[in-house]
Design a protein that fits this description.
The chain is an all-alpha fold and 272 residues long. It is built from eight helices and no strands.
């Protein structure tokens, strides 16, 4: 079966092109180039991942696997560097917005993060996609830096160090698992989404009734670890474009950030 995107011959039972990752079920081409297909609506989360896998892209936008993965690593490291600098130089978000209430800041972050996510996933220009990535990373970095400053102020800087080291160890272990057992993460997307929704609802209910949530932190850290593996695996299934590389970097960044935050909570409570 010939890929409609890059014209590579694939086996008859293949569903995605072995060369560019495009869906072999899509046959409509427009002239010499093929326009990206996104489903016609803004899709986030699981739907967005599915849209990225099925999209057909202009063959000229496809880059080599080495370049694609290099962009993922570079953009991811940039986000982590930004977070480190915010923790080191800025501290609490109140140092940047001294008169802003936490509720206003959270609402502002959610709005900016949604806009940034949409820009990263839908932008045609790599520059716009990178801007969207930073619209998520910078305010989220302020959230992380606020948490880190709180632990340091309480004399729990060792908790921050341990949480960072454990996050790195988890990331390395998950990456190794994806490389050795990629099929493990192939069909867990639906299950992960259902568990995440259930966990969020449970946390909201427990928060309303003032119940301690230590066990939910353990579940969440495990859940985002699986999400990390799933997103690393999925990153290799998308058409290898610069935009998809940045979108994959954003997925992986959010997984790592959530693991780090949950580990901070777990270790902080143990220290207390």
């Amino acid at each position: 079966m010939k890929c409609p995107n890059c014209q590579t011959e694939n086996s008859s039972g293949a569903t995605h092109c072995s060369a560019c990752g495009a869906s072999l079920a899509v046959n409509d081409q427009l002239g010499a180039g093929v326009k990206a297909v996104s489903g016609g609506s803004i899709a986030l989360g699981k739907k967005n991942r599915e849209a990225r896998i099925k999209e057909v892209v202009d063959p000229s936008a496809i880059v080599s696997t080495r370049t694609y993965n290099g962009v993922i690593v570079a953009v991811l490291l940039w986000g982590l560097l930004v977070n480190y600098l915010l923790c080191w130089k800025v501290g609490s978000y109140t140092n940047v917005f001294p008169t802003m209430s936490p509720i206003v800041f959270i609402i502002g972050y959610v709005v900016v993060a949604i806009i940034g996510t949409i820009m990263t996933n839908k932008a045609k220009s790599p520059a716009v996609a990178f801007l969207g990535y930073n619209l998520v990373v910078v305010p989220f970095g302020l959230v992380i830096s606020t948490l880190v400053e709180a632990y340091v102020t309480k004399g729990q800087s060792d908790v921050v160090t341990l949480a960072f080291l454990y996050t790195v160890l988890i990331a390395v272990a998950i990456l190794a698992t994806v490389i050795v057992f990629p099929q493990l993460f192939e069909k867990i997307g639906k299950a992960l989404g259902a568990v995440l929704i259930g966990l969020l609802l449970c946390e909201v209910i427990l928060l309303i009734f003032g119940v301690r949530q230590e066990w939910t932190c353990w579940i969440a850290s495990a859940l985002f670890s699986f999400y990390l593996g799933y997103d690393i695996y999925r990153s290799q299934q998308y058409p290898k474009t610069i935009r998809n590389a940045m979108a994959s970097a954003l997925d992986i960044y959010m997984d790592l950030a959530n693991i780090f935050i949950r580990l901070l909570e777990i270790l902080g409570k143990k220290d207390n």
